[in-house]
Amino acid sequence: MRLRSGRLVGSDEKRRRTLATAIPDDLLIYEVLIHLHAKSLARCRCRCVCRFWRAAIAGAAFVHRHLQLSRARPPSSMLSIPREIDAAGDDCATSSEISFHRLPLLLPPAHAHAQPPPGASAITDTEFIFEKAWSDGITRHIIPNYCDGLVAIATATDTVFVCNPATREFVVLPPGTHNELAELLRLHSGVPVLPVALGFDQWRNRYVIARYFYKKDGEASFNEATGEWSQHCYVGHEVFTLGGGGSWEVTEYPPQAAGIQSRPVCTRRGIYWHAADEPQLVRFGLRERAFAVVPRPPTGWNRAGDDMADLDGKLCYVHADSEAATFRVWLTDDEHDGPDELRWSLRFCIKFLYLPDDPDPDVIHHMRPVISVGDKVLSAATGKYYPCLLWAATMSDEEQEAVHFHHGLQYQRPDGSKYMAQSEDFMHHVLPYFESLVSLTSYNY
Question: What pLDDT is stored for residue 121 in this prediction?
Fold first, then answer.
């Protein structure tokens, strides 16, 4: 026994050991360890803790409870995936790595009122999570989608990646059906990536990824009167179930082609796709694995600017009125709606004002809600020159101008050095985020 600062250290250590042995393992695991970060839990699984603890942390009951607690916590951060676009305009250009960063949730001032500044404003630091190298390359153009801490990454090829940033698990899915329209869309529509959907099938207790694919029917034709190319094609849809080591399963044929410029959204009920040629939505029901055509909100339709999101478990639709620089955000709780109807309600409306003496303002042309906190919603917006994050109040369906902007994201490299990603050649993919222990290769939940 030795003395330190007048205390009997040996007795203290003995008392702590006695106390630890008096606490039941179940209480330590489900009331203490369950609240640790995923990084700390990974250390517990790899280091010298008892076999019972390691087995419990890896078990389905622990992973499921950890996921429930993560869902219930107020959001404290988001996930950002920066991608530098090829300056020469090659949509299929690749990089050998992809990085994931935690973006702190910066709440706006109580009375925020701002306009899009002509240049950069305050710099926001991000926290490096991890970087994954991929020898075959990952296209610089991607469209990520998110569910329960997992991220599905669609690329400019048929390759689809899935990642759990918290556990650093990163996998490539087996090849699906080849999309024969990919090259045609890149050349004539300016669309480098077709999105994929990621969601949780509560009836089968499995995470699924879904994608459209297109098979050519004849040759493409050019309409000189309209200056547009057209291609007859067969439309297909397939689903991949994570964790089973299986393959893509072709579903029934969808009733319409999907819109190629907006990402799909998965709610508790099903996966929603934008219809390509009509102001409607196509829903793939997860329970019955069947399609239905459902209405958009009673508003206008902007093929290039409208988008969808999952906001607090509800389906969110954003209509972009490009002429008035106004965005209207609608919500519906599809879980309680009828089989072929959605009851939409207008949640809030934002109108952007620009400085009258600015000859070339950074006009916002796209906005997608990411998360909500209280009566405010944080959205990722894209301007003519720079992306930004903005807050808006959600209590009024009247046009509002009170928004608070964040420009200038600073990222960290694996070696600790930092860089600004603020040029026109950078894209910031900002997603909701919380930690999850869900495995991509096994059923551990």
Answer: 47
Which among 76, 148, 67, 108 is positioned nearest to 313, based on CA atoms? 148
Give 103's strand partners: 78
CB contact at 8 A, 240 and 208: yes
Neighbours of 188 (CB within 10 A): 15
Please state whether the predicted TM-score (pTM) of the whole model is above 0.90.
no
Tell me 34's DSSP state: G
**Residue 275 is encoded by which pair of tokens?**
């219809």
In this structure, the number of other CB atoms found within 10 A of the CB of residue 115 comes to 14
Pairing of strands 124-125, 409-412: parallel
**Other C-beta atoms lying within 10 Å of the C-beta of residue 344:** 17
Q: Encode 61-102 in three state secondary structure.
A: HHHHHHHHHHHHCCCCEEEEEEEECCCCCCCCCEEEEEEEEE
Tokens of 259: 């819109």
Q: What angle do CA 368, 369, 370 make, to 5 degrees?
A: 115
Evaluate if residue 135 carries a pLDDT over 80. Answer: yes
Written as one letter, the residue type at 59 is: G
What pLDDT does residue 80 have?
A: 94
Give dist(CA 373, CA 311) in Å, integer.
10
Strand 307-311 to 290-295 pairing: unpaired
Which residue carries 């930004």 as its tokens? 388
pLDDT recorded at residue 115: 44
* CA distances, 149 to each of 146, 269, 434, 437 (Å): 7, 19, 5, 8
Residues 286 and 293: beta-carbon distance below 8 Å: no
Put residue 389 in one of left, alpha, beta given phi > 0 → left and psi -120 to 50 → alpha: beta
Q: Check: CB of residue 180 under 8 Å from CB of residue 233.
A: yes
Beta carbons within 8 Å of 197's beta carbon, 6+ residues apart: 145, 152, 209, 210, 211, 263, 264, 265, 266, 271, 273, 284
The 10s digit of each residue's pLDDT in 7-24 is 444 555 555 555 556 667
Rounded to whole angstroms, the Cα distance separating 304 from 293 reads 20
Distance of alpha carbon 132 from alpha carbon 160, whole angstroms = 15
- Maximum CA pair distance of the chain? 94
Rounded to whole angstroms, how far apart are CA atoms 44 and 60? 16
290-344, pLDDT tens digit by residue? 999 999 999 888 887 899 999 988 999 999 886 667 889 999 987 766 666 789 9
167 CA to centre of own chain: 17
pLDDT in tens, 162-207: 999 999 999 999 999 998 877 777 765 667 788 999 999 999 999 9
